[in-house]
Amino acid sequence: xxxxxxxxxxxxxxxxxxxxxxxxxxxxxxxxxxxxxxxxxxxxxxxxxxxxxxxxxxxxxxxxxxxxxxxxxxxxxxxxxxxxxxxxxxxxxxxxxxxxxxxxxxxxxxxxxxxxxxxxxxxxxxxxxxxxxxxxxxxxxxxxxxxxxxxxxxxxxxxxxxxxxxxxxxxxxxxxxxxxxxxxxxxxxxxxxxxxxxxxxxxxxxxxxxxxxxxxxxxxxxxxxxxxxxxxxxxxxxxxxxxxxxxxxxxxxxxxxxxxxxxxxxxxxxxxxxxxxxxxxxxxxxxxxxxxxxxxxxxxxxxxxxxxxxxxxxxxxxxxxxxxxxxxxxxxxxxxxxxxxxxxxxxxx
Length: 349
Known about the structure:
Elements: E1 17-23, H1 33-38, H2 46-54, E2 58-60, E3 63-64, E4 76-82, E5 99-102, E6 106-111, H3 128-139, E7 162-168, H4 171-182, E8 187-195, E9 202-206, E10 208-211, E11 219-222, E12 232-240, E13 244-251, H5 258-265, H6 288-300, E14 306-314, E15 321-325, H7 330-343
Parallel strand pairs: 7-14
Antiparallel strand pairs: 1-4, 2-3, 2-4, 5-6, 6-7, 8-13, 8-14, 9-12, 10-11, 12-13, 14-15
């Protein structure tokens, strides 16, 4: 790596783009930016760099430029680069999608449970993105992943998490949305059911989130910041049921499994979260009737009790703020009703 550049690589997160920043050296001669960037990224083709520039995925001193721009000493260059940890071709499939909103730039989808967002190892078909590809190709048959990488996917939610996800329909819109996610200006609130009676009515969890040092498929909280990436979750109690609590979580950052890891870190694992131990009775009595009740609850909501309930962002073309809400899916609604009835609480909604 040359001394004249500084590259900051973000660990892959719920956002699917990483940010690379470069500082042009004081002794740099004028050189086309597409050539300059290509020389500094391993295996980058000139064509790919030019596509990124055309789609405004690259800015110089905060502003888009053309490929023939000549770099100058001191220029700050920002490149939004697609993260492809396990890149696979997206095959179009006619899969029903619950489209909440759509125009020529963006689409917002309410994702059902048990649907993977994008293809990867073990899930090459039947994903949300397979359905999105089919949907977009009906509108624009010549569309390819070269012209719209990953068919506009800029963030993701877990397979068993339900709720709202936004996709771009143009490369320009994808760049705009990716920057909003990086700048933490996208508004996202989740509804979760967690084990235990959360002590405070509201609070903020600050702890780095990164790969578990032992179990690579899991993530863990690192409060000292010695591993992983900075992560902040704000939470607020919606309703208490003695043994479990309904919580609203607002993401300030978007790390993989952030809410699941952060809530477990403060002692409140998400209900029926198999990967993090929430599929066992973590709070409550030893009585057989209670055990049977909880088993019934697991059957009612046979997945992690987490729902992406709201999503707000600035429209990439109009610059107007858009806000969307998705009601609780039936499985979580029934789960909450069962706990409310069991706890004898009156509804606080």
